[in-house]
Amino acid sequence: MQARYKCFQTFFADGIFIDRDVLVKLGKEIGFDAKTVKRVISDEKYLDTVHERAKDWVRVGVKSECRQRTPVQGLGWGGATQP
What we know:
The protein is mainly alpha-helical. It has helices at residues 2-13, 20-29, 34-42, 47-59, and strands at 70-72, 76-78. The protein has one domain.
């Protein structure tokens, strides 16, 4: 759950695109070893599952669109629009 919160906070509140380097940084912040994180995110074992889940969310109307970063009171900078 901590990883999900960190990703949500980073993308939506901080407005930072989550690439591999950001994932490694976030993983280290919550206690994972950087080498392990790099190995896991480089492994395509779960790639199909991730893509299918993303499609499911889009089907029910959830989307995110990067926009100009604007301050969100109490949350830092906004990084996505509401569906």
